[in-house]
Every structure is written in C-alpha cells, then in structure tokens.
Q: What sequence folds into this?
C-alpha cells in the first residue's frame, strides 16, 4: 500500500519538512556527482554497524566520526527510488506532526528517531559491514508520531500495481499498523542474515517506536492529541 494524501488540516505551513526534502535532494545530487568515489562516501557518511562494535575500528575512527555518522546517514540514499519513497512519505505525514509539535520539537523527534533507528539496527546486526543509509528511520519516527497523534485521520491509499487507481480511503492507524507489522515480520525473517537483504528493517522498527513514544513527551500540553481547531477557531475536528 502506498499513501497518496491525508485529509488532515494544519494550522500553519510546515517549514522543517520542506527544508529536509530539499536538503536530501541536494545531497543525493551531490552523491551522483561523486562517480566512482560514491561508495567511499557512503561508508564514510553512513552508519556501518561493525565500526561501532569492533573495538579496533572504533578506536581508529574515533568517537566524533561515529557520532557524526548517526546524523549524516539520514541524508544519504542508495538510489532515486529510495530517495523518492522516503521523501514522499515524509511529505504525506510530516506536515501535521511538525504543526502539532512545533519546529524545535519536530527537529528533536526527527533526529532522535533517526539515531535510535541506527542504534537498534546496530544491536541486531552488530557485525554487519553493510552501511545503513537513508532517512527512513527518522521518517518512521514521524509515522509513529502520526499514529499517536492522528490515528483516525483519513488517508488515500494506492495498492500496486494499480498505479492510476482506484484509491482506497482508510484510517491512518490501519495503514500505519500494517506498515509496522510488516517491518517486524521482515525484520524477524532477516535475523541471522547479515545485511537484512539490503533493507534495515530493524532501523524502521526502532525509529517508529521512538517517534511514537517521544511525541507523547514532546506534544505541547495545551494540545490534546485527538482534537484540532482550525485557524479561524470556528471548526473543531475530532480525532477519536
């Protein structure tokens, strides 16, 4: 299932989400321009689990580089499809979460979820030498926050290979719970297989869980997570 759009009004225009989208595209274009040096850049800016768990490698690279890679990996992508899938998902779900949390709290949630995503993948696959790259762990955190904040918001879904429709409108919790169960299933199936078949399933799980839990702490106290008032103040939308 592919989310196409949600029916969930916001009070203000998103600022962080467009900035993340633009910066990810710029970084990816930079990657493409590296040519044969791109692989080295992926290993340098991505998260390689063994770099964190092998004492000799950890000492050689230094703590500063390892911490830096937890951030830089969130802006690296393996290909156009990887980039577009991540950015589209952020576009669909990110504006409402940013609207509810505010700029600073949204940034905190995004990066903490991304770091937690890499952390769980390192724990599950500590000896992997396959770089973990992409924004999907942080975006999974945004999806987890969306589930907590807007479980009954309506979302139009597309089911491949029906590229041009029909669209199916379902509550957000149906898609988001389906998605996280799929990550758990695939992650469980990948246990014992270094690299997880090229997809960091456990990073998705770690990011999603972190976003779900963190947004409970980060949501401003005056905002109840199940209601919303329009900019005019005259319309109230129930979420439960």
A:
């Amino acid at each position: 299932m592919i989310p196409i759009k949600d029916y969930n009004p916001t009070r203000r225009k998103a600022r962080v989400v467009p900035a993340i989208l633009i910066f990810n595209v710029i970084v990816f274009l930079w990657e493409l321009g590296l040519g044969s040096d791109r692989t080295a850049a992926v290993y340098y800016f991505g998260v390689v689990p063994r770099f964190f768990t092998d004492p000799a490698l950890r000492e050689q690279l230094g703590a500063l580089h390892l911490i830096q890679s937890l951030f830089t990996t969130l802006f690296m992508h393996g290909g156009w499809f990887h980039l577009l899938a991540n950015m589209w998902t952020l576009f669909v779900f990110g504006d409402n979460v940013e609207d509810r949390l505010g700029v600073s709290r949204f940034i905190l949630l995004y990066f903490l979820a991304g770091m937690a995503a890499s952390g769980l993948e390192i724990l599950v696959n500590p000896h992997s030498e396959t770089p973990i790259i992409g924004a999907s762990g942080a975006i999974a955190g945004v999806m987890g926050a969306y589930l907590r904040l807007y479980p009954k918001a309506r979302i139009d879904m597309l089911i491949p290979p029906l590229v041009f429709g029909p669209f199916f409108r379902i509550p957000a919790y149906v898609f988001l719970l389906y998605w996280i169960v799929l990550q758990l299933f695939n992650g469980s199936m990948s246990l014992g297989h270094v690299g997880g078949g090229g997809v960091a399933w456990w990073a998705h799980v770690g990011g999603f869980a972190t976003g779900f839990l963190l947004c409970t702490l980060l949501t401003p106290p005056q905002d109840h997570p199940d209601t919303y008032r329009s900019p005019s103040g005259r319309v109230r939308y129930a979420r439960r």
Observations:
- The chain has a mean pLDDT of 88.
- The first strand starts at residue 2 and ends at 7.
